[in-house]
Amino acid sequence: MKIQTKTTLLFTALTATVFFILNITVYFFLNESAHNDFNKRVELRAKISAKYRFEHDAESTESFRELQRQYMEKLPEEKAFILEVAKGSKVSKTPLAPELPATYLEKIINADGATVFYKKGYRHYAGLLYKENTGDDHIVIKSAVNVYGREMMQHLLIIKIVTFICAVLLIFTVGKYFSRRTFQPFRDITAKVNQISQGNLHLRLQEQKGSDEIATLIRTFNEMLDRLETSFEAQNNFISNASHELRTPLTAIVGEADYALQRERTPEHYQQSLENITSQAEKLQHLTKGLLSLAQTGFDGKKQKHEAVRLDQLIFDVKDSVDAIFPDSSIKINMHALPHDNASMNVMGNYDLLKIAIGNIVMNACKYSNNQTVEVDMIIEAELAKIVVKDNGIGIPEKDIKQVYIPFFRASNVKDYEGYGIGMPLSNNIIRLHRGSIDIQSKVNIGTQVTVNLPICSEENG
């Protein structure tokens, strides 16, 4: 069942329930009001009957009769009962009408002159005890059928049922209309999304003004499409660049092999060809190793072994590795104001991956500064560890800084330096796997500062 239909039915059910309860309440109170009003009429006639029968004031009796004739209509099926009760007794001397229960008589006697009402179907009874100064007391009961009230309530019930059915149908129709209007944007989104595929990721949903749920959904979906389009473009560029970079050393290897095999050559020529093949093969090995590492860091990080890693020890290990590759490098490690608690210098992660990430950044600093002094600072804050690598090298042009994380991208001023554009994308992927970030600040011919932010290992984020 569609959400639109569910919404319509739910809206109809809720509204119909409220309307039904309201109708029942109104009907109940109107019914009680009609009964109470009729009880008062019967009570008045019971009191008048008592005046007629037991008061001997001729003027008063005649006045009552005149009022009754002029202003009081005769009630439908009106009846009167007068029962004699011995003084001080609770038993009637006159036989009680079979339609009245004995308990009703007891209530009238115990009421001490107050009117007692009784209802059987639509017939109402009003009884009271009239006490004589001398002689026996009398019970005066007046009854009548509330024909008007019965007809009114029957008509009201029919009206309520008809209006309830009509209201439910109207509510369902209106609810269906408005739910259709409400969910129309979702149908438009679905239709538009069905048109979007890998071949036309440039298409976007029509954004709406405001900050309601639909506008937010459309903006979120468009942002997702932006990321997908960027990802597909990056993937296509990656494959294209990887193919080109792999093809270059392979072409050189094949060319040298063909050159050596064309005819018999001197040992010196063979040795030169083998050296060229070895050099290109090493480049190919380095390139494929970097591509493999870059691809592996595309995982979610759950397959790598994570443990507490001491950052100070990691930095010293990185220095040793870089010194082995660049013997002429000058790396200065600064660790000022470190916390007394060694656990505050731990991050949760994979030691080997973090060593690769920090090592790439430090090696870039050494390489592009021509082995000038590179400073590595470690700063520990409340819940964050910062590793700051500063050099005085050639710097990165401002327009290129945002693209250094794209595989195979190389800044416009590094043509004289050997590289493949894999180091920084690899480091960025590794740091992101560890829920960290990299910030780069650089000026051409002045130097570069790379800040690696990593969350401190704790019970919450460890």
UniProtKB/TrEMBL annotation:
<feature type="transmembrane region" description="Helical">
    <location>
        <begin position="157"/>
        <end position="178"/>
    </location>
</feature>
<feature type="domain" description="Histidine kinase">
    <location>
        <begin position="241"/>
        <end position="458"/>
    </location>
</feature>
<keyword id="KW-0472">Membrane</keyword>
<keyword id="KW-0808">Transferase</keyword>
<keyword id="KW-0597">Phosphoprotein</keyword>
<keyword id="KW-0547">Nucleotide-binding</keyword>
<dbReference type="InterPro" id="IPR003660">
    <property type="entry name" value="HAMP_dom"/>
</dbReference>
<keyword id="KW-0812">Transmembrane</keyword>
<dbReference type="Pfam" id="PF02518">
    <property type="entry name" value="HATPase_c"/>
</dbReference>
<dbReference type="Pfam" id="PF00672">
    <property type="entry name" value="HAMP"/>
</dbReference>
<dbReference type="InterPro" id="IPR004358">
    <property type="entry name" value="Sig_transdc_His_kin-like_C"/>
</dbReference>
<dbReference type="InterPro" id="IPR036890">
    <property type="entry name" value="HATPase_C_sf"/>
</dbReference>
<keyword id="KW-1003">Cell membrane</keyword>
<dbReference type="GO" id="GO:0005524">
    <property type="term" value="F:ATP binding"/>
</dbReference>
<feature type="transmembrane region" description="Helical">
    <location>
        <begin position="7"/>
        <end position="30"/>
    </location>
</feature>
<dbReference type="InterPro" id="IPR036097">
    <property type="entry name" value="HisK_dim/P_sf"/>
</dbReference>
<keyword id="KW-0418">Kinase</keyword>
<dbReference type="InterPro" id="IPR003594">
    <property type="entry name" value="HATPase_dom"/>
</dbReference>
<dbReference type="InterPro" id="IPR003661">
    <property type="entry name" value="HisK_dim/P_dom"/>
</dbReference>
<dbReference type="InterPro" id="IPR050398">
    <property type="entry name" value="HssS/ArlS-like"/>
</dbReference>
<feature type="domain" description="HAMP">
    <location>
        <begin position="180"/>
        <end position="233"/>
    </location>
</feature>
<keyword id="KW-1133">Transmembrane helix</keyword>
<protein>
    <recommendedName>
        <fullName>histidine kinase</fullName>
        <ecNumber>2.7.13.3</ecNumber>
    </recommendedName>
</protein>
<keyword id="KW-0902">Two-component regulatory system</keyword>
<dbReference type="InterPro" id="IPR005467">
    <property type="entry name" value="His_kinase_dom"/>
</dbReference>
<keyword id="KW-0067">ATP-binding</keyword>
<dbReference type="Pfam" id="PF00512">
    <property type="entry name" value="HisKA"/>
</dbReference>
